[in-house]
């Protein structure tokens, strides 16, 4: 596969040279530059200097999950804004290098190694995907390199900080999302028969598990299940099998490409009209639009971020800043594409974490991201903030249900703090 590297940076050539000099000799295995004195003595300082910090991201810019390639574009715009108008974070300008893994785990590890051992990054930020980030996690923890704010809701990012102290997630866990859907059906359709379509990996299995646990002992029953592989060209056979179940509800646990296929197949089958619940990662209008908004009315999902296409946020301070600066620093991007705003929000989260560093080291970064107290990054929904402890590696665990009406999502109900709701 052709390898893509994108340098998303506002750092000057001189500054880049300074950064390279400061990292000279580092191998990304804890034997690189360290702090010589003070409370941070002996901690890893590869990739961070007085005026700069270098981050690396891994995304599927190509392949079956390439829709996610819009996320780093939003991050780039945010970091360019921070560098140009805030002078960086605590005086350090951010260089962000993006690599393409095509959503292939072996390639993800290869690109992580390139970022750590050749590019000398301070941290891996926003590796995307469950199978791909799982492969990177083993490498990052072996090398003692932060893998921060993973772009996946798999439970493994926060479930065992002892075994994986260098990895932490960001978005709500898939387990929590599944529980929210289960609780919703127990209230709204207490005798529902549910057909489940899910991706056959940790992503799909986690969300399914959360849903199944939530409906235990209730009248809501799973009557049919089908899985698919990310390499499958089509899920039409699975959708036909699920339709034969005559279930009242379709729980659609897919990534964008397959989300579009599932919605299209559902719309085409006029003999089956289930309530269609689609998971957050496949809820973008870019997934729905190819099917036709008129054919996806009343589907349900969950959100933790403000929708840039929702008029209720037109005068919102954070949304106005996002639109203004996205236009200024990435003029060709559509501000209404949620993956752009997701990137903006995650970039804001990283800025907040870097700003709290007591030790400008890799160890200091992990300590900072495991001690977040009601920290808001831009574009989070009201009532949603980042909270972590040394034992809790899930920064965001609040979700709100939404229903698609007209040409946009409409929030309904109240935000659900899954820590409090489900323990």
TrEMBL record:
Keyword Signal tagged: yes
Domain Leucine-binding protein: 52-405
Keywords linked to the UniProt accession: Signal
InterPro entries: Leu-bd (IPR028081), Peripla_BP_I (IPR028082)
Pfam families registered for this protein in UniProt: Peripla_BP_6
Signal peptide extent: 1-23
Highest rank taxon of the organism: Bacteria
Coiled coil regions in record: none
Keyword Transmembrane helix: no
Stated family: Belongs to the leucine-binding protein family.
Protein name: ABC transporter substrate-binding protein
Species of origin: Actinomadura fulvescens
């Amino acid at each position: 596969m052709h390898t893509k590297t994108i340098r998303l940076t506002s750092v000057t050539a001189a500054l880049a040279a300074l950064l390279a000099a400061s990292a000279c000799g580092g191998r990304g295995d804890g034997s690189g530059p360290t702090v010589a004195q003070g409370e941070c003595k002996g901690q890893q300082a590869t990739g961070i200097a007085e005026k700069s910090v270098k981050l690396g991201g891994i995304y599927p810019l190509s392949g079956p999950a390439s829709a996610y390639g819009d996320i780093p574009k939003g991050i780039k715009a945010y970091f360019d804004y921070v560098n140009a108008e805030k002078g960086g974070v605590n005086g350090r300008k951010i260089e962000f290098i993006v690599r393409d893994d095509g959503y292939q785990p072996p390639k993800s590890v290869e690109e992580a190694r390139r970022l750590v051992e050749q590019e000398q990054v301070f941290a891996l930020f926003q590796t995307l995907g469950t199978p791909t980030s799982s492969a990177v996690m083993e490498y990052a923890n072996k090398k003692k390199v932060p893998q921060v704010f993973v772009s996946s809701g798999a439970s493994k990012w926060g479930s065992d900080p002892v075994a994986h102290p260098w990895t932490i997630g960001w978005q709500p866990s898939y387990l929590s999302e599944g529980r929210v859907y289960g609780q919703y059906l127990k209230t709204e359709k207490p005798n529902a028969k549910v057909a489940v379509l899910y991706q056959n990996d940790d992503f799909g299995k986690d969300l399914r598990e959360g849903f199944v646990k939530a409906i235990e002992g209730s009248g809501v029953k799973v009557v049919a299940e089908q899985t698919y592989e990310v390499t499958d060209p089509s899920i039409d056979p699975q959708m036909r099998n699920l339709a034969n179940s005559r279930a009242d509800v379709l729980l659609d646990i897919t990534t964008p490409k397959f989300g579009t296929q599932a919605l299209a197949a559902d719309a085409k089958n006029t003999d089956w009209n289930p309530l269609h619940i689609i998971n957050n990662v496949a809820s973008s209008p870019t997934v729905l639009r190819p099917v036709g908004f008129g054919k996806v009315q009343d589907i349900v999902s969950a959100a933790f971020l403000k929708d840039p296409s929702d008029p209720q946020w037109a005068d919102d301070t954070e949304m106005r800043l996002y639109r203004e600066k996205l236009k200024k620093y990435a003029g060709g991007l559509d501000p209404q594409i949620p993956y752009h705003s997701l990137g903006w929000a995650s970039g804001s989260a990283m800025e907040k974490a870097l700003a709290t560093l007591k030790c400008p080291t890799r160890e200091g970064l992990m300590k900072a991201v495991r001690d977040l107290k009601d920290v808001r990054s831009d574009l989070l929904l009201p009532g949603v903030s980042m909270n972590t402890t040394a034992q809790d590696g899930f920064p965001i665990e609040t979700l709100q249900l939404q229903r698609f009406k007209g040409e946009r999502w409409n929030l309904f109900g109240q935000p659900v703090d899954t820590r409090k709701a489900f323990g």
